[in-house]
Specification:
Strands 2-1-4-3 form a four-stranded antiparallel beta sheet. A hairpin with a 2-residue loop joins strand 1 and strand 2. The protein is built from two helices and four strands, in the order E-E-H-H-E-E. It has one domain. The chain is globular. By secondary structure, it is an alpha+beta fold.
Length: 99
């Protein structure tokens, strides 16, 4: 079952983490649910976040991506799925041939 994993990071440590069921294209709903569970405001979803999510299946939100003040250094989300994963980065530096 695909899931969205979220981590609240403070001083380079995971302070809190959680997962919710999520289809790849339903990240907005899953992020809203995770923020409700963590009792934090929902971050602003910028084009930068969409690009990172589409290319790497993960992104991070810094305090400046929230409308309210937050007591942590960053919120990271990552899409977890063993099956039917979208293609990873097309950057040739990420292609590992026969190593």
């Amino acid at each position: 079952m695909p899931r969205l994993w979220a981590r609240i990071i403070m001083r380079h440590r995971i302070e809190r983490q959680g997962t919710v069921d999520c289809r790849y294209e339903d990240v907005d709903e899953a992020l809203t649910e995770l923020c409700r569970d963590f009792d934090i405001p929902r971050p602003i979803w910028l084009d930068k976040h969409r690009r990172e999510y589409d290319e790497f299946r993960r992104t991070r939100f810094l305090p400046e991506h929230f409308m309210e003040e937050v007591p942590f250094q960053r919120l990271e989300i990552e899409y977890l799925d063993d099956d039917d994963r979208p293609p990873r980065s097309s950057d040739p530096r990420n292609q590992f041939d026969g190593y």
